[in-house]
Amino acid sequence: MRREFALPDVGEGLTEAEIVTWNVAPGDQVQVNQILCEIETAKAAVELPSPWAGTVGELLVQPGQTVAVGSPIIVIETAEAEPAAAPAPPPAPAAAEERGPKIGEAGQDGRIATLVGYGPRPGSVTRRPRKRPAAPPPPAPEPRPAPAAAPATDGRATVPLAKPPVRKLAKDLGVDLRTVTPSGPDGVITRADVEAAAGAGSAAPAVSSGGERRVPIRGVRRATAAAVTQSAFTAPHVTEFLSVDVTATMQLRDRLRADRAYRDVKLTPLAFVAKAVCLAVERTPELNARWDEDAGEIVYHDHVQLGIAAATPRGLIVPKIRDADTLSLRELAIVLAELTETARAGKTPPSDLVGGTFTITNVGVFGVDTGTPILNPGEAGILAVGAIKPMPWVVDGELAVRTVCQLALSFDHRLVDGEQGSRFLADVGALLSDPGLALTW
Amino acid sequence: MSDPQDWTPATADPGLRRPSREQVVAGLKATVEGGPDLVQLLTPEGERVADPRFDAWAADVDVDALQGLYRDMVLVRRFDREANALQRQGQLGIWVPLLGQEAAQIGAGRAMKPQDMAFPSYREHGVAWCRGIDPTELLGIFRGTDHGSWDPIARRFHLYTIVIGNQCLNATGYAMGQKFESKVGDGPDAEATICFFGDGATSQGDVHEGFVWAAVYDAPVVFYCQNNQWAISEPLERQTRVPLYRRAQGYGFPGIRVDGNDVLACLAVTRWALEECRTGNGPVLIEAFTYRMDAHTTSDDPTRYRLADELELWKLKDPIERVRVNLVREHGVGQEFFDGVAAEADELAARFRQFCIDMPTPGPERMFSEVYAEASPPLEAQEEAYLAYLAGFAAE
Has residue A104 been placed in a domain? Predict the structure, then answer.
């Protein structure tokens, strides 16, 4: 018999939990009370034991997913036969059966009963309706709601009747519910009504809401906001600036482009900056470190997990180049191109977005000279690369036109002092103004 | 003016310096061994050690009786674990585990005579077992369908008290009644009361008041404090600066610390204390020095506030294992006995589980039926109005 185990409330009034790990896989035989999985709630991390013996049919929730109390999380095939048309007489008195399904079992409406499911589930209304009086109602002091046929222009029906999801749909589609003719019972506006009204296009007057547009905060926007806010208010930021003559680097780039080895490689200035950062980190490891408040320790990373801030249609994301310090300039250029392409296509896997140790943000692509970047949470440094453009520059006491770029480095002052931050920035600048220096390090 | 030192009791060794604050706190850590005053008859290694004061109180415990205590503890632990699992499966709203405190509860529970009265907190599943309350009767409270399924007068075991320490007042009052009604004396029918609470409850005003009243009325009550070292997340050092058993001295009655993981010592000391009370020498405070091996309740996560080394240390003092070792080494009990108890435990767990899953939800009348012993017109009116209200809803 196929049975679904619903997430119980393991801690008096919890509404949801995250599945941390599964200890079983489909096809496994399980015993009663064998541990199925570990979950993490707002109160505690606990293990869930199996309520039945049988074979694991299906895992309905992935690790890392947060689900509401009462949601089925696993299917277990037990040895019991499917209930026949006439269910076996339950051991409990019939009176209990009348009061609803047993805990953990699906009721007639398909919902699984939980013992203490305080959390309201979206779309479910648990309050039972009052009985309608059998006799005709006494004359009411207020008129009853407009019947189905009532026109929307009825002065009393100022509030159109629609369920919340339909109201949301109408809002999303820009449909004014007051203009929609209801087709549902009792004058309720249905989803189809709203879609029809939206399809009518200009027939519905555009809703003016006073010259502003409200966009729900969600997804990448919300994550970005949380990350920068947390970072800005936990890590004391210091930002230093440096203007660099990158003429030599640009000349090197031109020479390398002519090289056979770089024939199919998109060699951008960003690749040179990435290489310079990796080299400079070796001399100033403080910039490739992390402040661990909980442990009371500073964590130095052996390798550079280099984040590249990328503007994508979904918003700002920062994919990482793994062990960037082990890559050659050519390899860096190849990985950078792939990373950027994947990010723009919106296909960056979540695993590529975590575990960074240092970030480069290329504000120069927007034609901007410089900025004061905010650290990615958990990182000690972030380097903003400004626009690379010809500028007047003093060479040997005379003005000359050189290719110049501005660098801005923000660092976490808790673990990086001005000395280390300045040395690191000067190193990056020196490498970009004279790439040959790399030979000497 | 006298020197303040004159007001403090002389220590055994006048040369001893008073301990520093740090030393006092260190002595209250969960990792200490209980100190020289700890009464112990069975070591954690299962060795029977002599105790001139309390050997006589356990002299009648032969191999059969010891096997009985072993069986009690195994069965209680088994249904406790089953209830914990049932909570994780959504069948109970909450469970309060007793893991690690089996000896403290079985020792005290088996020391009681049928006529003695017990006032539990909410963790006394082992004592309930000794009072003949079937484990399934505990389930209603934790499933949220009932306030208590047994008759406290018939079973001589009060309903579970959730308010911390509150039962100390009830127990003291009950014991004062026993005294006023001349149920204390040398006869075989003499009665006593035993009140169960934890280390956290000792910080409650109710416990203090209970101690004061019991002391000045010589009430026949044994205050049985299971010091499991943690009041949810608060360690003992947040409750006291003296070992808890020594608090009794301040109230003017004897206090004694017993190894709460030693069922034999708990049995002997509680027998002695109850007999003291029955013969008019009460009250007595017993501190059963034990450890809460699991969470405070299923809603709690102890890994957030205590270190695993404590738990590992206390695993070595397991209350069941030391009896098992003693039965094998000193009495030659064979494996078939242990297998039999294990099988019985599994049967109990299966019955317990099935009962829980099939448990009917009582009707709304149940809320009113046990409030007063006799019918009360206002309550009947309330019940009638409430049932009429519920009947006003349409069927789902």
Answer: no
